[in-house]
Amino acid sequence: MKKLASILVFVFAFTVSTQAQRGKTDKRARLTTEQQTELTVKKMTLALDLSRKQQNQIKPLISNQIAERKAEMEKRKKARKDKKGPTSDEVFEMQNKRLDAQIAMRNSMKDILNDEQFKKFEKMHKKRAMKGKKMAKRKGMKNRKEGRRVRK
Fold this sequence. Notes:
The protein has 5 helices and no strands. It is mainly alpha-helical.
């Protein structure tokens, strides 16, 4: 009887944890491109003390950037679903395109912002990049601990 009860408890716990993991992805709120743009511009306004004119100039840049990011993400999701990885030429193209976009964004921001604001913008950008690297490193360590294969 004790064995039967312990097996039932184990099966119940396993089922509950499986259901909880499945539900995590569905509950995440998805913001529209306009909502994300609005929030990003407001955050930048607070951090850089932007004028109305600067806000209006930055808004389309941010909107385009978010739209392109969403399109690329959908493309990657579809490829992952089809279990197709990018070729080395495609990886080169993606990285080249990403770097060109970063250069264009930096040049546009340099034209819009004054010197003091641009220095703050660069500092914020570098801080965010370092945060991303830390998170990627932490994720890689987590994958190694769990025995997953880590791509380099």
